[in-house]
């Protein structure tokens, strides 16, 4: 498929070149020649043809062809575009209608649009009307195209006028149109003109056989030279200082300029009418009352001078030639068009006298020696400047408004951001206040502790304190549990109502209270003394942990905490360790959980509050650990609070530890954390459940 | 369809108003078309081109009245205005001798350019300013007769003779047109005055007069 298509799409470079081989590129429209060779070719062709066909009438023909040649030479540039058209009708004279029909269609890209318009507007009058209309249009356009080569523009205009007249007669007398109302007949006539002229525009507008173009250039030049003429010179009362008037003047100028873009004479006329109506409005604004021709004509002249429309003469001649004469000579459009003709004529013949000025002054203006220096003119300039100034000011105003809006929004955003920051800070602090520091290990240990406590009824609530007080060298392994217990108790004693004890408060009590009860100092000193003196074995076993910095123990925490699945094992370990106190090393993993808490708390004490603590300085020497500690301690506090909360209940009625009731923020986590170990126990069952659920779902 | 129900026909006549500036051309036409004098009361925003439909002897006539700029500097533009017009109203101010001289030059020009194809009416306006009259009625009438033109004295301010003047002109144009048509028989005139237009079918007044006021 692709292969078959490709060759047809490919054009060789040589195919694009001129057939004469001159090296330039050719064009299909020029029969494969380049522009220059084509012209030569056509000239030869024409010569040959005129010699052949006009043989009998030799003298006349040659003279005519010479005339044609001369004309072509004159307007060489234009001829190029018209050549294909000239050629076809003349060369295909015999083939007749079908070819011409195609021609007309081709050269009139608006034909379809016009036809659609025709059908929508006059379709109701029946197929016969439409057919007849199109027949007339085609005969008219064919006729014009036939004659195009041999008749002058004025003769063509006569032909056109005759066609209009005959179509008008046809409209009024032919049976096809007998049902059409006179109103519509008029419109049909207009449409006939429009339809034909839109198609013929290219050939009839500024035809190469005329010197319309020269006239255009001369009038344009003339108007340019007269650019200094102002309303005052023309005794015209246009006051350009008024914004409304100026806008209307611009509207009028625009309408006049729009004339050149229209194709049908009627449309051009309509532009003139619109322009003139604007002029009338201008005068209305300036003087009020009905506008008479005495005022209208100078104003129109002024507008024409200021507009300097393109191809003004060509347009006017085109309208005069090819607009239905009867239309042009009557009605508003006719009147205004006549006025335009007058204005142009006046401009062409303008003298010093007609402007009421001295010949010398006029010549000075015309030669450009003197430029407009009148107060009026400078006022005009100033006015225009003011106008621009106003526009710019309004633009600036709008910009500054938008700017301030942006500024406000930025400020608002800033405030919002600051507020948000504050809110977050407040929230964080309030959350921190609400959720005091909890030591993480407690949670993992807690179930054990509770179980342990339950399983070990001998441990009383208070006894540990004396216990501690009594014994410094108490077994560390055993010590942990009571210490936690004790801490819990102290915390609960501190007052459960105190829901928002500060970070340090949370911790300090743990350490503080015992110390107050003489037990803690020993304990703390015990820990502090760890690095320096060699304590009993059990302590030594811990020291490595401590010596390897608190941070390390901290890291252990994290691992322990995050690795919740290991909790069970830890508990088991703990249990084992409980049972076998000799295994001093085994508790190590959770020794940070247990013993680590006081140690870590110690740095907090000084950092957070001015609680005078004896143990502070020594621990503080681990400066670089502090950030770590603080960070992790915060987590710890959170966890601690959770545990504390959990702990509260056990002291009262000892419900299952993992039932946080108040702390929604951590309730989820808290409830989840212990539950996971349970799940991890029977992951398979969970999976099974899940799979069962999913299968159910799928089912 | 509606063109020949009562044997009458429709005519379109183009009438140009010529005359020096400030002789009252615009006032005259406004008085005729709007029947108002004071410009404050006139609804038309432009008085330079006005249409008037009248019914004359069963013929519907549409008068297109073209005002022209009267300033001397625009005099040369006259031919463009009066080209292919059927009638001309030449207005002078009875208090201004110069304006009458201007009328004379217009008449000369029109007769030279258009011959007898154009119906002329010479109008001495501002007849209410009788005390300041500088152009005598006799002189004007004499001249008008000489150039085969009608003559009227009017006062746009007092609404004297305005309608009569226009009616007389229309009658003359109608007669000329009919004469011309009879001569040319079915040949269509160069300006195709025969273009059939529709006139609103108001009640036909049998008497000679205007019925189509707006």
TrEMBL record, chain A:
Annotated region (Disordered), positions in chain: 45-76, 651-699
SUPFAM superfamilies assigned: Glucocorticoid receptor-like (DNA-binding domain) (SSF57716), VPS9 domain (SSF109993)
Coiled-coil ranges from the UniProt annotation: 396-430
Sample GO molecular function, one term: guanyl-nucleotide exchange factor activity
Domain A20-type as annotated: residue spans: 12-46
Biased composition (Basic and acidic residues): 55-76
The organism of origin for this protein: Acanthoscelides obtectus (Bean weevil)
Keyword terms, alphabetized: Coiled coil, Metal-binding, Zinc, Zinc-finger
Protein's UniProt name: Rab5 GDP/GTP exchange factor
Recorded superkingdom: Eukaryota
SMART domains: VPS9, ZnF_A20
UniProt biased composition (Polar residues): 664-699
TrEMBL record, chain B:
InterPro entries given in the database record: P-loop_NTPase (IPR027417), Rab21 (IPR041833), Small_GTP-bd (IPR005225), Small_GTPase (IPR001806)
GO molecular function: GTP binding; GTPase activity
Subcellular location: Endomembrane system
Gene Ontology cellular-component terms listed: endomembrane system
GO biological process, one term: Rab protein signal transduction
Main location: membrane
Family: Belongs to the small GTPase superfamily. Rab family.
UniProt name for this protein: Ras-related protein Rab-21
Species this chain originates from: Acanthoscelides obtectus
